[in-house]
Structures are given as C-alpha cells and as structure tokens.
Amino acid sequence: MQIRNFQKRIYDHYRVCARDLAWRRTRDPYHIFISEVMLQQTQAESVRPKYKRFVAAIPDFRALSKAPLRKILSLWKGLGYNRRALYLKRSAEIVMRDHGGALPADVEELAKLPGVGRATASAIAAYAFNKSVVFIETNIRRTFIHHFFKGREDVSDKEILPFVARMLDRKNPRKWYNALMDYGAMLKKRYPNPNRRSRRYLRQAPFAGSDREIRGKILEALLARPKLSECAIETALPFDCARSRRCLGDLEREGLLRSRRGFWTIA
Predict the structure, then answer these.
(1) Which of 120, 129, 143, 151 is most deeply buried (CB count within 10 A of its CB)?
(2) What SS3 state is found at 155?
(3) Distance of alpha carbon 103 from the chain centroid
(4) Which residues 6+ apart lie within 8 Å of 256 measured at CB?
(5) From its phi and psi, is residue 211 left (phi > 0), alpha (psi between -120 and 50) or beta?
(6) Which residues contact 122 (CB under 8 A, 6 or more apart)?
(7) Is the pLDDT of residue 203 over 80?
(8) Which residues pair with 258 in a beta bridge?
(9) What angle (nearest 5°) sits at the alpha carbon of residue 18, between those of residues 12 and 19?
C-alpha cells in the first residue's frame, strides 16, 4: 500500500506537470548519452539549447569520435566543467573501438567510460534501454529525503537506496525516473531544499574569481584564436599570472590544451 500510494503521488504530479525535454522524446542511446553527461552538475534549463545544437552538429558516436576537440568545446561552451566535453570524445572513441559503435546497455560497461561513473551509467541504462536499475541523483535524493526522512539530518545515500529500490516501477523504469526527476524539481521550488539534510550536501564555492572561471576564460580565449602565447593569455585575463599559469598546466595535463614552441592551442 505504501508503495502504491507513493507511486500514485509521483505519477499524478507527472501526468499534470511533466516537463517537455527533447531528450525524453527519443530512445536513441547516443542522444540520451549526450544529455546525461550534459546534465551532470548542470540544470535542465541550461542544457536544453546546448543539447539540440550539439546533436544536430555531431549526430552519432562515429562523428563524435572524429570531431576536433575545438569543435566539441565550441558546442559545449556555456555548460561549464569542460572536461566533460573531452570525456565525451574519449568515450565515443571507446564505443567505436570496443563496442562496434553501439553504446553498451550494461551498467558496468557504461561506468567504465571516461567521466561517466555509476550514477550516470545507471541513468543512461534506465532512459536509453528501460533497465530496472537503482540509482540516486539530486532530484531523486530530494524526493526521498522529503517523504521518508522528515526531521532527519545527515541522511546518507546508503539509507536512501533501499527506498529507491522498493518504490521503483520495474515495468517502466524510464517513465518512473522521469516522473521522480520532475517531482524533485518541483520540491526544490516549493520547499526549503531537502537536500541540505543529505550527508552529501555541499555548498558550491562562488564561481567568480575561482579556478573554474580562469579555466573557462582561457578556453574561451583559445576558442576565439587558434593559438596564443602564454604572455598574451596572461595579458588578456584579469587574473593573477601565477594562477593563470597553474590553470594552463592543469588544462594541459587533462588533455584539453597543448603547448608547443611557446604557444598554447586547443589539444
């Protein structure tokens, strides 16, 4: 009875307030893979326009594996956490080389792809292949804390997972997880964020003046010009030179930038 009542509450909300998101209108594993990586640490409203542009310009794993990183980063611009764009390309190369161009449906195999991890792998398996997997994401965590951990602080994901497993609609996990996501998004707007009572909750550091901002500005400058000297980059950016150099080094080690004969370029 508890399971039926909870599922009814979630589905009743979804029936009336389901969000119209482009990646929900497809079963194409490639499209769903792109959307799920974009949605890591990024809100759906920010992903909407970027997703459409990306899959139109780079329509499949073969095209993604062969696309220059400059093109991928240009399409990614504005989503932040630019390593994800590099991970997309590397994942596409693995899919083409090891899986014959077809995204694997197995969670363990998906989780091996660069930058994916188990939660994103499980989401891809649910949405692309309708697999009855159990996972936690921000909106899912918010929903279960709100309904099953009232008055509790420091709630761990280990405590939440059994509830997610019990309440799962195993006949249609794709629809169920979409409904849970939309319910969690509603809770964030209507109530003080229940996720603040999660053990995993961390306030994000301000973006302004952070290394994230410096890295983004460096990539933005190099997307506008094919190559720049370190001096030109430091002159163009309103940041401490030592921090800019450190960020340049980090971007090179991660594989986003390349340094050659005193000039920096997109890798």
Answers:
(1) 143
(2) strand
(3) 17
(4) 69, 73, 82, 83, 86, 219, 266, 267
(5) alpha
(6) 107, 131, 133, 134, 135
(7) no
(8) 265
(9) 160
